[in-house]
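user:
I keep going back and forth on a fold encoding question. Separate attempts, laid side by side, tell us more than any discussion would. Would you put together a sequence-and-structure record for a protein of your own picking? Write it directly below this note and I will take it from there.

assistant:
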Amino acid sequence: MPTLFPPLTLSALYIYPIKSAGRVPLNSAHIGPRGLNHDRRWMVIDALNRPLTQRECPAMRLIEVALKVDGLAVSAPNMPLLAVPWQPLGQHRTADMWGQPLDCVLVSAEASAWFSTYLGQPCDLIYMPEEEERWQPDKRPYRSLLGFADGNPFHLVSEASVADLNLNLSHPVEPHLFRPNLVIRGGWAYQEDVWRLIRVGDLTFEVVESCARCSILSVTAAGTFSAEPLRSMARLRREGQAVIFGQHLVQHAPFSARTGQLRVGDSLEVLEAGETRNPVYA
């Protein structure tokens, strides 16, 4: 008899309001042209206006973010609570997003002092205003509007794939370690590698790119670097020069119609699948 797999459902939703800081779990989330609302709309920059992430500052792993009525509440060990408004009204600053200049808004002198103290270097917290348009690079065939996400507006991982990966790791990991927006339950391990088009609830997404993992994956819960799990994953999930795990998505809709809502418990239907893994765009 054929093996029966449980149906595919959306088991968790996360946003990361401040790039490379803590996750915010949600039961439901609204979508706009850039992806999930409030996802990676704030970013910390250094004295040269370049992004600061856990790759450079692993202590950012310990920054926690909560959503409040009037904005974000940001906390970290031995630091006072920082309030960040939804619509900062500070001076405009040009951020250097890996060679791409972006017109952004400085959140506040208080926020700059808070992050400078915590990270031990001069830095600022900035916000991407609605009028700033940052598009995916031309080399990605699925052009999409972005906040401060690296290259795609949505990231998905599968609980089944994490469970299979844990069979080969000395220390098991949880799905949220991979910083996904969508976590999927059901099916079998690594099925998402070949998905091309899926429907989650009422919304359709193109599955456009395998996620090439970086050193953030090996930042520990204590905010320090470790060799694992990336070293083990390099033996198991290598595609060319990349170590892949999870998939990137864009909403399958015209830009003016990229809206809607996702809810934990939504069903997932695979509309199209291929025979090879999705590519990685360098």
Remarks:
- Residues 96 and 233 are 31 Å apart (CA to CA).
